[in-house]
Amino acid sequence: MVLSKTASQSDVSVHSTFASRYVRSSLPRFKMPENSIPKEAAYQIINDELMLDGNPRLNLASFVTTWMEPECDKLIMDSINKNYVDMDEYPVTTELQNRCVNIIAHLFNAPLGDSEAAVGVGTVGSSEAIMLAGLAFKRKWQNKRKAEGKPCDKPNIVTGANVQVCWEKFARYFEVELKEVKLREGYYVMDPVKAVELVDENTICVAAILGSTLNGEFEDVKLLNDLLVEKNKETGWDTPIHVDAASGGFIAPFLYPELEWDFRLPLVKSINVSGHKYGLVYAGIGWVIWRSKEDLPEELIFHINYLGADQPTFTLNFSKGSSQVIAQYYQLIRLGYEGYRNVMENCHENAMCLKEGLEKTGRFNIVSKDNGVPLVAFSFKNNTRHDEFEVAEMLRRFGWIVPAYTMPADAQHITVLRVVIREDFSRTLAERLVLDIQKVLHELDTLPAKVNAKLALAEEQQSQNGTIKKSEIETQREVTAYWRKFVSERKTSRNKIC
What we know:
Blueprint: E1 13-14, E2 27-28, H1 39-50, H2 70-78, H3 91-107, E3 119-123, H4 126-147, E4 156-160, H5 165-173, E5 177-181, H6 192-198, E6 203-209, H7 221-235, E7 241-244, H8 252-255, E8 268-274, E9 286-290, E10 302-304, E11 311-313, H9 323-360, E12 364-366, E13 375-380, H10 388-395, E14 404-406, E15 415-420, H11 427-446, H12 451-464, H13 472-492
Helix pairs in contact: 2-9, 3-9, 6-7, 9-11, 10-11, 12-13
């Protein structure tokens, strides 16, 4: 869906220097051309434009896997033409998905018998997985309320303000009130005590995050479970927990095996995880696992037979590729427990290397935790002259894509930079990034202050005129508001397709 205006209303054609040996006329940019062109020209035109994309390996904003082994790349290309939904035509692919579901369920300590099959499904990512899990909670809550003769028109879900946007989408798309636990400076995850206080008889579940997008921190699912058990006893409710383990689900079992966050806790009824993050598969695969069959209402499962046999399906979309499912199975059997542990340990060690390098500059506070998703979130100790947005902008000149962003309510006056450490981010790259950050800092020191200096001057003038001087937090919020507007204007001025 095209969301923005064209970059230039006058330039409506696509031109290619190298492809001119095959085709001399330009192509319409936003309309289908009348005539065909040689395949070489089509390739060259597209390839030339794609050269201007960022380098995925240097995109430190993303948690998504950007490298896999050549053998797995070959498996992906060999199965690129298989539609996963044709289960009767591709029974082995279906079997591989079932194996993945069971492997992941055992990894999350699902209470399965020796011959009992796990309940779960592959999705196009954690967003779809969360939608499916949320629908299951909503329908189960509605069924119980109807059986009790109580109203079921005002469901709500309790989360922290640090949740990924897919939770807001679920709430809005499926008409569920989103009750958010606000953050505070120095504590950037959901407080279990405050979360349980928000729970009422209309709460379909409490969503805990195993690996916050903001700073990689694991929320205390064990404490949340214990507090919710007590509240359920006092009230007679049976409010469950869903764990959004999109980032942390393939980390905790290998780095923190003793941490209780999964189906070992009785109130955890479903878990989602992104195979395309630390499951080490390219973008396009997620998983949702339920504790038992009873936690997935049967009426949500559709049965079709027009593809050759009776097939149960519980997804938001229908057709999708098989490649990522096959790639996930490759990684699970190729690496095994030992391999995944080695990868996660390496990522953690490289994160610590980067953290130490940033600390040695003496200019940053580290906002992330040592335990959690291997990433480093950091902010200036003193941003009165220059801020994190300027650092992010200048790092792009070296090829690095490092995001700067503000925290959610009520910590929106805090701005941070975040570097996600993936398998393909080596210690050498970590050291190089630190050197480039030092170059940026040196250059910033030679430049005049931008917004903050102007605000400081305005404050001084206000003080001289006898007006009330703004607090440090108020000043920082003004700076944040300015940069939000600045970044938003830059984004909307570019041609974007979503």
